[in-house]
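stage 2 :: seqdesign
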């Protein structure tokens, strides 16, 4: 009986890894959790997060007008959630130090 419990996690891991594409994660890949920061200028930031659903532009949670400290706190919280979220087969996350300019 204990052998079954020892083998179950291995079997589960094999099932999850099968079909997972190799290479760098992309937002348009199903199962890729993404999280990034955009610089709005004037010390304000936008945090964008979501889970790729296979579409070119997946749905995302967007929080605008955050201070640097607020953006960092939200980013840290969302990143911790990604580590335990079973939907996250791959993770693509960039923090405020790698912020891209906000889209107009």
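stage 2 :: out
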């Amino acid at each position: 009986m204990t052998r079954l419990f020892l083998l179950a996690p291995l079997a589960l891991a094999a099932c999850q890894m099968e079909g997972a594409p190799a290479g760098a994660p992309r937002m348009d890949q199903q199962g890729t959790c993404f999280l990034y920061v955009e610089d709005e200028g004037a010390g304000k930031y936008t945090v964008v997060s979501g889970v790729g659903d296979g579409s070119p532009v997946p749905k995302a949670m967007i929080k605008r007008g955050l201070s640097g400290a607020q953006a960092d706190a939200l980013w840290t919280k969302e990143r911790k959630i990604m580590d335990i979220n079973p939907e996250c087969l791959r993770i693509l996350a960039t923090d405020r130090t790698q912020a891209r300019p906000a889209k107009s």
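stage 3 :: structure notes
- Helices lie at 2-17, 68-84.
- The chain is about 30% helix and 30% strand.
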